[in-house]
Amino acid sequence: MPTRNFKVDDYFDEENELNSYDKTINKKYSIKNIFIDSKIKKQKITKELLKNIEWGNVEDIMDYESGFDGYLGAYSESEFFSYRYKKVHGIIPEVLILRNVNTEKLVTELFKNSDIPSKAYYKSIQDNQGTITLSLLFLSIKSGETSENIDENMYLYIDSDEVWIYYNSKLEKDPISPLNIMISLIKYYVEPKITKNKIYVVYQDNGGFQKTGFKIKKVNVNLEENYNDGFVEVSKEIVDGLNSKDKTNLVILSGAPGVGKCVVGNTKIKIRNKKTGIVKEINIKDLM
């Protein structure tokens, strides 16, 4: 069973390529502070802090006015929200994406510390045999008024371990704006960059390639007895790559169906002869 290991490196040197120095104002610029200051201090969610947040209404944004709206919403929720923001508020929104957020804790603390009205959010939840998970949460926060005295909102789109914020750029440089307050609160629930190595499965959906992590319980398995010939060497190559501290390691198991990418060769299966009705037990590798 062939394997291919790829190391994913950073091809863009942010510090050298993006930093510039304006001698006229004696200030160093980088992508980290041109728009939003990346040094906004994180704060734990409290009832006192959330008193500064006024919840909005998602009904205008979630209104499907045409078949195109419905199509776009089914194709890409993130693009749909940008499109509807422009329709409702008359401007193209800025979008900030915060990744590696523990969204379960974030959402729990938001609802625990504030009486968020039902009109301020749209949610999608899953019940998998009693295990409740949040698929997505779309949350509206008042951020000002337009010239027509219509409430202008910023929006949080929470999905998996990401928080997307749609907002008016005028909020960026105001340190007490709802935008900067929410950034400081969300950053408190961002997982540390340096964590134990984790294995992800890569999958594809309407938005492109995504990844999902999962926990593995360590067990002692005799690879020579339970796996096909040569798999001990393959296993070592995979484990060494996954444990590498040098960037990220991607493992692709390739081969025709039935060569043992995800099953043990000695796995027993039962087959039934359609003509005779006789059932017998064989090894997976007998089908290879």
Low-confidence stretches: 1-14, 20-25
Radius of gyration equals: 25 Å
Sequence of strands across the biggest β-sheet = 4-8-7-6-5
Shape: elongated
Number of helical regions: 8
Beta-sheet strand percentage? 25-35%
- The SS-based structural class is alpha+beta
Per DSSP E runs of 2 or more residues, the count of β-strands stands at 13
Order of helices and strands: EHEEHHHEHEEEEHEEHHEEE
* Major sheet description: 5 strands, antiparallel
The pLDDT mean sits at 79
Distance between the termini: 12 Å
Q: How much helicity do the residues have?
A: 10-25%
Describe this structure in words.
It is a single chain. The chain has 288 residues and is of the alpha+beta class. Among the domains are: 43-187, no CATH class; 264-288, no CATH class. 24% of the residues lie in helices and 30% in strands. The chain is built from eight helices and 13 strands. The protein has helices at residues 14-18, 47-50, 67-75, 77-89, 103-113, 178-187, 223-226, 231-242; strands spanning 3-8, 20-22, 27-29, 94-98, 121-128, 131-145, 151-159, 162-167, 199-205, 208-214, 248-253, 268-272, 279-283. The strands form five sheets. The protein has a five-stranded antiparallel beta sheet, with helices on both faces. The chain has a two-stranded antiparallel sheet with strand order 1-11. A two-stranded antiparallel sheet has the order 2-3. Strand 2 (20-22) and strand 3 form a beta hairpin. Helix 3 crosses helix 4. The longest helix is centred in the first third of the chain and has 13 residues, at 77-89. It is elongated. It starts with a strand and ends in a 5-residue tail after the last strand. Mean pLDDT is 79; it is low at 1-14 and 20-25.
